[in-house]
Design goal:
alpha+beta; five-stranded antiparallel sheet; 23 helices; flat
């Protein structure tokens, strides 16, 4: 067992208003040596981690030096300086890191607070507002960007979630921490360190502040205080070798004074010779096994019983069942390498480390971390050396001469190096200059290949940087950029994991420690400043409104596709599809417009979505509907139903009116047809009485555009044809068949008699009578 657990005199009240980091009873003398034994065990673990992580931390320091243009070994730089050549740095690897950091800043994504219980949607919304407020107060986005960039370079960085004990500061604190100040349990391979046993953080603190913080250890801290900044010796490495002091570099044998001018690009350790006294404090978080009681039933089922919590005691008095278990209890110790100064139970109920790792990559062999710079260092060093070699070859001349061609070879060398040099050679001897063009071209070609391989290795290709796109279409460029970002997706995924873990810690701290009434501002682009009061008490009922400590919730980071070009192409395709649908179903576009805007990356997106849903009468599906909103929605539905009924009645009235107009139109058509028929009959009567006018009438009708219908008008129903009498004689040719009584009647020549009204009524009846009925005698 790593740590031996012994019960403390009392448990730390996690919900008290006292300073959670000051426990006077735990800061007592240690007659049994409990703290000393734990301190000795922790220091053994720390020394073990120093040895185990030396190589990882040395490589991480070199990675950061390469980003900061410190890319020359001392002996290589000395050779260049001795021959009068500056150790130039062509830092192409830095551009890859800066591109990754810039992409992370552009692709910052939102998060949400989701309730754990069905009826706690309002509480989760209040917590989301408060967490956003703490983001603004603590500059959380900038800390996350800083940690991401450091992890991309060196492989590991840290986010911190804690609390402030100063009443003048916001109680919820979030920040970031440098990997140099943290030693983790490197044998644990979990990304969230959930099973890790310890975590150390070193802090160089001014002596006066340390004395005020821990007055009981004043004598010990004064004895170890120093005016120099405390430096961790295991971190003083550069390119595989331990560095000496900066002052020693100035006096190295064989180096000219020009070394000082390029020292900033070569690298050395730097010790701050300050005048403030400081002391190195260690903050050790560690887990110990402990036998505890766990609730088996009730509202706190699965929670560890805390005897200092009044609510827990109340549930115990109500005889809620509990069972015994062994849990890992988090503890924290403040100490130096030589002596413990404070030891106690962690004040946080979540029982986790308050530092969250931001990983880049981890070596499969031993779990050690490394970043994007690790694979680019060799190529970057090759670029610098080949560029320097090519410059050296171009700046010098190669001389081929017979022996005795000149009297003084050194004078020849000096004159050949001068652009205005004069060389006298002896007669009969050969002397010529050779330019190593092939060697120069080879070095430049290999340098270009290393440059291209460096970009490929770093995952930021020319397509990502917008280079070499002449003659290519925009879609082709976007697809190449999409493929290029796949190689760096691991970094962004690890950042999302770290944000998720850090958000859970902060949410737990809010639910535990934010119990006082407080007005929180709500700031949004394009909106006035609003205020939300949390932990407010209703004066009438005494109920706590917007209580942050009542229930627990979950912190969820929104899913994100970090391939910006792919997301952009998907958005364009979606809006193009909506434009096509709008041509024949605009109501469908209006129904899904809020979802389309919500999936885009535009500024003030929430306000866009809110206005669209308000215009369409829609509500946010992720939020629980309030009684007021339910009443409004019901009233809107009733109003819409009434409007639909009114529209239906109006359609029915319009249909009746149309039917009446159609009936009127049919009657007018029949009258016109009867009048036309009457005129035709009168004309037929004239032709019958005066046959010689028929050819003239036919000629006039054809000139007017009438066509022969075979003796029938298709608009006039024809009576049934009479059955021919086989005994009757055939009618005379050219003579119109007439009724015998009408034929015997005498008529004035040239003028037909008007048709009697009775006969006109019979004709109309014949028209209205269906075909096949008895229509009387044919007219």
């Amino acid at each position: 067992m790593m740590f031996e657990h012994r019960p403390q005199p009392r448990a730390l009240d996690q919900r008290s208003d006292d300073n959670p980091f000051v426990d006077k009873q735990l800061e007592r003398s240690d007659p049994e040596g409990e703290q000393s034994r734990r301190h000795a065990t922790l220091m053994e673990c720390l020394n073990d981690e120093r040895d185990r992580q030396t190589e990882e931390r040395m490589q991480a320091a070199i990675d950061e030096d390469f980003y900061d243009h410190l890319q020359w070994r001392r002996e290589d730089a000395a050779v260049l300086i001795e021959r009068g050549q500056a150790p130039l740095v062509f830092n192409e690897s830095r551009q890859t890191i800066d591109w990754l950091a810039g992409m992370q800043k552009r692709m910052r994504k939102d998060w949400k607070i989701l309730p754990r219980e069905e009826n706690d949607a309002k509480g989760a919304e209040v917590k989301q507002v408060y967490v956003k407020y703490t983001d603004d107060v603590n500059l959380t986005q900038w800390h996350q960007s800083r940690a991401f960039k450091q992890a991309a370079i060196s492989g590991l960085s840290w986010l911190e979630e804690g609390i402030n004990t100063d009443p003048g500061e916001e109680i919820i604190f979030s920040g970031s921490e440098d990997w140099r100040n943290v030693y983790r349990d490197s044998r644990n391979r979990d990304f969230d360190l959930k099973a890790a046993r310890y975590l150390f953080r070193r802090k160089v603190t001014d002596l006066d502040y340390a004395l005020a913080l821990l007055p009981g250890s004043a004598e010990h801290m004064r004895s170890i205080a120093s005016t120099d900044e405390v430096v961790d010796e295991s971190d003083i490495w550069y390119l595989g070798e331990r560095l000496t002091g900066a002052s020693d570099l100035d006096h190295m044998e064989g180096l000219p004074t020009t070394w000082r001018d390029r020292r900033a690009y070569i690298g050395n350790d730097y010790t701050d010779k300050g005048r403030r006294q400081a002391v190195e404090l260690l903050e050790a978080w560690y887990r110990v096994p402990e036998a505890v009681q766990v609730f088996k039933s009730g509202p706190l089922v699965g929670k560890v019983f805390n005897p200092a919590d009044f609510a827990h005691q109340q549930l115990k008095n109500d005889r809620h069942a509990m069972y015994g278990a062994v849990k890992m209890r988090m503890r924290v110790m403040i100490c130096t390498k030589d002596q413990p100064m404070w030891d106690g139970v962690s004040p946080f109920k979540h029982g986790q480390f308050i530092l969250v790792p931001v990983w880049a990559y981890r070596r499969y062999r031993d779990g050690m971390a490394y970043g994007q710079m690790r694979g680019m260092r060799d190529l970057q060093e090759d670029i610098n050396k080949r560029a320097s070699k090519s410059q050296w070859l171009l700046a010098n001349n190669r001389i081929v001469a017979d022996k005795g061609a000149v009297d003084d070879p050194e004078e020849l060398r000096e004159e050949a190096a001068r652009p205005d040099g004069i060389i006298f050679k002896n007669a009969g001897k050969e002397l010529r200059f050779e330019a190593p063009t092939a060697e120069i071209a080879g070095n430049l070609e290999l340098m270009d290949r290393s440059s291209q391989a460096l970009r490929d290795q770093g995952g930021v290709t020319n397509a990502n940087l917008g280079r070499g796109a002449n003659g290519q279409s925009g879609i082709s460029i976007e697809r190449q950029q999409d493929q290029g970002t796949l190689t760096t997706s691991e970094l962004f995924d690890m950042l999302r994991l770290a944000r998720q873990l850090a958000g859970k810690l902060r949410l737990s701290h809010i639910e535990q420690f934010v119990s006082q009434k407080k007005a929180v501002r709500i700031v949004g682009e394009g909106k006035p400043v609003e205020w939300l009061t949390v932990n407010d008490t209703d004066p009438d009922t005494g109920e706590v409104m917007n209580d942050l400590t009542a229930r627990e919730a979950d912190f969820i980071v929104a899913e994100q596709d970090y391939r910006e070009s792919f997301a952009k192409a998907a958005m364009e395709e979606m809006f193009e599809l909506l434009g096509q649908i709008a041509n024949y179903a605009p109501q469908v576009v209006m129904a899904v417009l809020d979802l389309a805007v919500d999936s885009s990356d535009i500024r003030n997106k929430d306000e866009w979505v809110s206005r669209i849903r308000k215009l369409n009468g829609q509500r946010d599906p992720t939020k629980e509907q309030s009684p007021e909103d339910a009443a409004k929605e019901f009233a809107a539905q009733q109003k819409q139903l009434l409007m639909d009924q009114m529209a239906m009645e109006q359609m029915k009235l319009g249909l009746k009116k149309l039917q009446a107009e159609i009936g009127k139109l049919d009657a007018e058509t029949i009258v016109k047809r009867v009048e036309s028929l009457f005129s035709s009959l009168q004309a037929a009567q004239i032709v019958a009485t005066t046959p010689m006018v028929a050819p003239v009438a036919d000629t006039i009708a054809q000139g007017a555009g009438y066509q022969d219908q075979g003796g029938q008008d298709p608009n006039i129903p024809q009576p049934a044809a009479p059955v021919a009498d086989p005994m009757a004689p055939p009618p005379a040719a050219g003579i119109l068949q007439q009724d015998p009584m009408q034929a015997s009647a005498e008529m004035p020549p040239g003028q037909p008699e008007p048709m009697p009204p009775q006969q006109l009524d019979g004709i109309q009846q014949g028209i209205e009578t269906p075909t096949g009925a008895d229509n009387g005698p044919a007219v």
